[in-house]
Amino acid sequence: MKRRILIVEDNVGLSQMQKDWFAQAGYDAVTAISEPIARSLIRKTTFDMILSDVRLPEGNGISLLEWIRREKKDIPFIITTEYVSVPDVVRTIKLGAIDYLPKPVHREHLLELAEDVFKPMVTVRKKEKVMFHRTSPLILQVQKNVRLVASSEMAVMILGANGTGKESVAQSIHQGSERWNKPFVAVNCGALPRELAASLLFGHEKGAFTGADTAKAGYFDMAKGGTLFLDEIGTMSYEIQTMLLRVLQESTYTPIGSSKERVADVRIVSATNEDLLQAIKEGRFREDLYHRLNEFEIQQPSLAECPEDILPLAEFFRERYSRELKRETSGFSDDARRRMLAYPWPGNVRELQNRVKRSVLVSESPLLEMEGLNTEIHQHNNETIPLTAIRPLKDETQEKMNIINALKACNGHREQAAAMLKINPATLYRKMKKYGLK
């Protein structure tokens, strides 16, 4: 059954475009132009996600979110707006919004968010997954580090942007370890409800709390003897961090409602796209837990940093989806190959995979064209700036030039530049002041 998404937006052209994006990605999207219409639809229909503008002709996105919370409807909610307000951001996050997107909202970013929202809370793999073997220098270094650490019991932390393939690295570590024939359990930490976290992680006994009609195994039980992969570790609440730290320190845990301790016989591998050192400074992440999880660190590079992998990966996905979708394809046109190599791939391997899959599905020719890959931004003075010069902020040696390029490409529009750099406008303003940019 398709996931159903409600788009609350008074710009009919924009809402139709977003509806088309979701439809192309396999979702069922419905639109509403005001808060009263949205409320009426929510009362009659079950939605899996809501995307709402703040400013509406009747009502607004924040009051809609407040109403949903009063109605005790647990629907993932994303706010969009052209006018970024820090108080509004704080208010929506406190109300439980999962993200706050400045306009213009980019297709790949929006679909990536939806994929994260609908990602299962836990996945158990007992069989080896077939993975593509990449050959770019940076990936070869990652593979070398994987071989070095796999046979140990060290806790590994994998760092990298969304869509780079951090879970594939974790699976490679598992497959290279002595635990390879035991379960690999991947937990989406961003989806762990605070009030159920202890039960989900450690399990519970029958009658432990209201609704516990049967005993249930937790993720530590499910991964026994194997590897527990904690994805998006940076989103874990402070309370859950404390529970996890206690288990890692003592190597034991107790299911809810039980008096018997169990041994935590798992290898821990974690991953994040967040700067955890900054999160520690801001008091959002425990430093002692960070050191427990980060006995060995692996940095997974972006796809743009591994251009040698782009075309081989595209061929790999083309062959896979040609089989799955039962479509006859023979390769990519010369123009498609040129566009793929010139495109910056902000959504990384995941974006490449999704674009190839769609191209296989919609192509009327065996030779795929990969339409829709815009490789440059045009300014009003007809000057062009290649998007490859604009990447998400990484370190201080690149930041200033990246900010200058983004501002230039957006004709000085700060909110658009912030969206391009995948940071919020407040962070951009702070960094512009730091580097003396006005």
From TrEMBL:
PTM annotation (4-aspartylphosphate): residues: D53
Keywords: ATP-binding, Nucleotide-binding, Phosphoprotein, Transcription, Transcription regulation
Domain Response regulatory: 4-118
One Pfam short name: Sigma54_activat
GO BP terms: phosphorelay signal transduction system; regulation of DNA-templated transcription
GO molecular function, one term: sequence-specific DNA binding
Segments forming domain Sigma-54 factor interaction: 132-361
Keyword Transferase applies: no
SUPFAM superfamilies hit by this protein: CheY-like, Homeodomain-like, P-loop containing nucleoside triphosphate hydrolases
Keyword check for Phosphoprotein: yes
Name of protein: Sigma-54-dependent Fis family transcriptional regulator
Native source species: Odoribacter laneus YIT 12061
